[in-house]
Amino acid sequence: MRRLLSSYPVVITSVFSASLLSAPSVSAEPDDVVYVTAADDVHYEPHGYGALRQSSATKGSAALAETPQFVSVIRRDQLDTLPAESLSKALRYSAGVASEKFGGFGNSIDFSKMRGFDADYYLDSLRVAGNSGSWGAQIDSWLLESVEAVHGPSSALYGQGGAGGVINMQSRLPRAEESHQIQFQSGNYDNNALRFDSTGALNEDETWLYRMTGSAASSGSQIENTKQSRYLIAPSITWQPLNNLSWTVAGVYQHDPYVGYYNTLPAAALGLLPSPYGSLDRHRNYSNPDHEKSGRTQQSITSLVSWQVSYSLTLKQNLRYADVKTHIRRDFTRGFVQDNRLLTAVYQDSPSRARTLAAHNQLIYKTLTGPVSHEILTGFDLQTGKLDKDWSGSQTVTFDPYGSHYRPQFTPHMTSSTSTGQTYRRYGVYMQDHLRWQQWSLILSGRYDDSSLKTTNNLSGTTQNSDTSVYSHRAGLTYTFTSPNNPSPE
């Protein structure tokens, strides 16, 4: 029956792209020294749907066949083909993921469940944090190179989180290979979008790379008087003075003047249950359009440093500051009263802001002990920030959805309110050894986390403090059977 509630826009897309492969740079390093380049990046596999490797479940590149955890990998080609206008739509066909928690009405909110639990979101291995009970940051799928959904508990590497798993997104980053793309999209419900992406080298020796990505999109929906729109720009630049050293700085500014329609109606109102008054028109908007207007603005700056000191030793640091402002103004229906004719509704007004800083430092060391190879990871990550949220709600109002005025006709009178401020700090230290011998793979991981949270009630002036520390560990053993359909992980 869900098909009756969702919109199916007819979309016409036009894409213009140009690609030029640059000549490979000549390395002055000895023949026995190998450095990782863009072509070796597990997230940068520019063509095809299938993936053989992942990096999120182990925080280091590993074959899917030797990863003791189920990982769904969605690459750029698949994002373009679906087409995935949001992360939720990109995850529609991933087993064990219920990605559209609020249905398919809009593309502005990503709340996914994995194995029955809310998923945790990461971008470039840095956690995407936000206010509980509010609409947090949403990473636009046009900005992504790939998405990896790691199923099952992942505390041994990621720390505090849900038991369902984590969703780790990888940003589109500057590349030496020149590529330019412009995409126009138009469809029913006034669905219009313009997107572009351009990357390449800024100089002949390819020590400076750039990428510029952006989009402007707006659309209505099957519900009257509803709208969602977004404008974003994401410039980034990479400096790589050496073959084994790179530093990328990326910025994102995203403004959502309207985040779409996310209301509900009782099953009886839609004709799914018997009602003496019949079913309601599914295309009508039973909200008050004078009150309903929710929006969001988010901006971030990210630093990504990678230094391959030698074939055996690699150092990485990821750092991001983000500022996300949301304002939820809506009225939502709750249910029928008086012989299932009158509907009840509640008005809500809730501005919030999240200012967060996340850092992830990692050391990767490769060595041998006899016939056994080791890939040893040690890491330290830090998350800190300030979360502010106000909430106001009205008393329950009633209206007749079967009448000529089928919307709430009341001026909202807010009778209850809350105002809270939270500051938090979390840090974690982890270590992992990935041992390989012939077709055997053993992963041993351990992590220690410490967190503190201070919550202030701005109305009463009272505060609450909580401190938590915990140790997590895991072990996973796999054996890879080689066959034409399952090649060796090496």
Automatic annotation (TrEMBL):
The keyword Transmembrane appears for this protein: yes
GO cellular component terms attached to this protein's record: cell outer membrane
TM ranges: none
Protein name: Ferrichrome-iron receptor
Listed Gene3D superfamilies: TonB-dependent receptor, beta-barrel domain, TonB-dependent receptor, plug domain
Locations listed in the record: Cell outer membrane
InterPro entries: Beta-barrel_TonB_sf, Plug_dom, Plug_dom_sf, TonB-dep_rcpt-like
Residues spanning the signal sequence: 1-28
SUPFAM superfamilies: Porins
Organism expressing this protein natively: Morganella morganii subsp. morganii KT
Superkingdom classification of source: Bacteria
Topology term for the membrane: Multi-pass membrane protein
Broad class of where this protein is predominantly found: membrane
